[in-house]
Write a structure and sequence with these properties.
binds adenosine-5'-diphosphate, binds magnesium ion, phosphotransferase activity, phosphate group as acceptor, kinase, binds uridine-5'-diphosphate, globular, 248 residues, alpha/beta, nucleus, UMP_CMP_kinase, cytoplasm, disordered N terminus
């Protein structure tokens, strides 16, 4: 059974009170992390979700900003949420920091809760989830909690050499933008990314984009994907609003 649940995000000790039932895109969350089902049936009244995959420095964040501007999605960067968690001195902060320093993957439970909390605090119905999932375990945890699969998955495919160059020039003061951590991140990416790519390819959801070229050249490959989806997104938003009105 579907039911609206008090938020998983409330499991995070410092989290603010839930904003669910406030925005037009309030959505239903699967009751627990422990659902046994592997493939979860998507709900019509679910937000429109795009996963944005790609190695470190492949241009995920840069392209997300362009998609937000052109198509009005809300950008949810998993990495930014984790860094915010570190900065806020939360209970998980030190574990997250050491995990990021080592180029490893933060436990799904933490990341999924942060993403859901961010989505639930938004009035929007269409989201870009940037830099997530980073493992099959991430993917399963998210899909079980939200009770749906993403609608679209973008994969920015970029040669390692180019990714390393971009990360080393990023200049955002990140603890993981150094050559030692980048090597580890690339190893982790190479080990864990391909099963996710294969899974969504089989499900007909994956768009592989060659991420070499200028930012604008790459966006011209991204734009038609979202242009083609426009009516589907509009319909989803309509269903979500009707659902909320019926619920209230
Ligand atoms: N197509 C591109 N060509 C050259 N540099 C880029 C391109 N796209 C992004 N960058 C730069 O590369 C760095 C990494 O980009 P970013 O969007 O942060 O990647 P990711 O989120 O995948 O790690 C940033 O400094 C960004 O300005
Ligand atoms: O779902 C996620 C997203 C990020 N990270 C951690 O946060 C780091 C930075 O992620 P971000 O997406 O910001 O890096 P980018 O790929 O954009 O360089 C990663 O290397 C991981 O250690 C994670 O564990 N799970
Ligand atoms: Mg990024």
């Amino acid at each position: 059974m579907w039911r609206r649940v008090a938020l998983l995000s409330s499991l995070i000790s410092h989290s603010k009170p839930s904003m669910h039932n406030q925005g037009p895109c309030t959505f239903k969350i699967w009751e627990s992390f422990t659902s046994q089902s592997e493939v979860v049936t998507p709900s019509k009244a679910a937000p429109f979700i795009t996963f944005v995959l790609g190695g470190p420095g492949s241009g995920k964040g840069t392209q997300c900003a362009k998609i937000v501007e052109a198509f009005g999605f809300t950008h949810v960067s998993a990495g930014d949420l984790l860094r915010r968690e570190i900065a806020s001195n939360s209970a998980y902060g030190s574990v997250i920091l050491s995990t990021i320093r080592e180029g490893k993957i933060v436990p799904s439970q933490v990341t999924v809760q942060l993403i859901l909390k961010e989505m639930e605090s938004s009035d929007n119905c269409k989201f870009l989830i940037d830099g997530f999932p980073r493992s099959e375990e991430n993917r399963k945890a998210f899909e079980q909690v939200i009770g749906a699969e993403p609608d679209v998955v973008l994969f920015f495919d970029c040669p390692e050499q180019e990714m390393v160059k971009r990360v080393l020039n990023r200049n955002q003061g990140r603890v993981d933008d150094n050559i030692e951590t980048i090597k580890k991140r690339l190893e982790v990416f190479d080990e864990l990314n391909w099963p996710i790519v294969n899974y969504y390819t089989q499900r007909g959801k994956l768009h592989r984009i060659n991420a070499v070229g200028t930012v604008d050249e790459i966006f011209e490959k991204v734009r038609p994907i979202f242009s083609a989806l426009r009516s589907e997104v509009v319909e989803r938003v309509r269903v979500m609003v009707v659902d909320r009105e019926l619920d209230s």
